[in-house]
Design goal:
Strand content: under 5%
Number of helices: 9
Distance between the termini: 14 Å
CATH class: Mainly Alpha
CATH superfamily: CDP-alcohol phosphotransferase transmembrane (TM) domain
Shape: globular
Number of strands: 0
Number of domains: 1
Largest sheet: none
Structural class: mainly alpha
CATH architecture: Up-down Bundle
CATH topology: Four Helix Bundle (Hemerythrin (Met), subunit A)
Radius of gyration: 19 Å
Length: about 220
């Protein structure tokens, strides 16, 4: 069982050995998030998809580099999920805006569903911050979280490419437009998996908190 440490000591441990290539890639990925959002809102959908692809590749390679060259760091374990969550924020917000401004009444009504992705990640960020403040480490990603993240990205890329009124490819050739009902079902599946992932983190967090309380007593 881990001993209780102060917030200052915890932060020192987190930033120890942080100057690594994987961490630099994570920082670049975070910096690309507002660029993606602005470019997409401005209507440069192809460029936004390219930026998202670069972000995804950096996410893939930072983990590979960290493991191959033994550059795994405590900061990296935090930066990577933070970059994931901020990317989810950006995608969810721009699609919420696009759906709210769509001509389709169904898409306008469905726009609020994207806010559920944001709500889940706000809960995760707040929970992680509380755990760090208590002198503990956030629990690592569960398999449910990894699956939910993969499905989220896959669904969002499909929408960005083929979604009615919002897709790059469907905007060029309407014949490749994804039916609204299919799109809605895909998003709902992603939402369900997202909250299953959230629930999967609760036992680990509760175990840490209860273990800490028992040790203090």
């Amino acid at each position: 069982m881990e001993e209780k440490v102060s917030l200052k000591e915890n932060l020192h441990t987190i930033f120890d050995g942080c100057m690594t290539v994987p961490n630099l890639l994570s920082v670049i990925r975070i910096c690309l998030i507002p660029v993606f959002a602005v470019v997409y809102i401005k209507g440069y959908i192809w460029w936004s998809i390219l930026i998202l692809a670069v972000s995804g590749l950096s996410d893939f390679f930072d983990g590979k580099i960290a493991r191959k060259f033994n550059q795994v760091s405590n900061l990296g374990k935090l930066l990577d999920p933070i970059a994931d969550k901020l990317t989810v924020f950006a995608i969810a917000i721009v699609l919420f805006i696009k759906f709210k401004n769509a001509q389709s009444v169904s898409m306008q009504a469905f726009a609020w569903v994207f806010l559920l992705f944001i709500a889940k990640d706000i809960i995760m960020l707040v929970g992680g911050s509380v755990i760090i403040a208590m002198g503990m480490r956030p629990t690592p990603a569960e398999i449910y979280g990894k699956v939910a993240t993969f499905v989220f990205y896959a669904v969002m890329l499909v929408i960005l490419a083929f979604g009615p009124e919002v897709g790059a490819i469907s905007g060029i050739n309407p014949a490749y437009t994804l039916p609204e009902k299919v799109m809605f079902v895909l998003v709902v599946i992603a939402v369900i998996l997202t909250f299953v992932a959230l629930i999967s983190y609760i036992p680990g967090a509760a175990k840490q908190i209860l273990g800490k309380d028992k040790k203090e007593k």
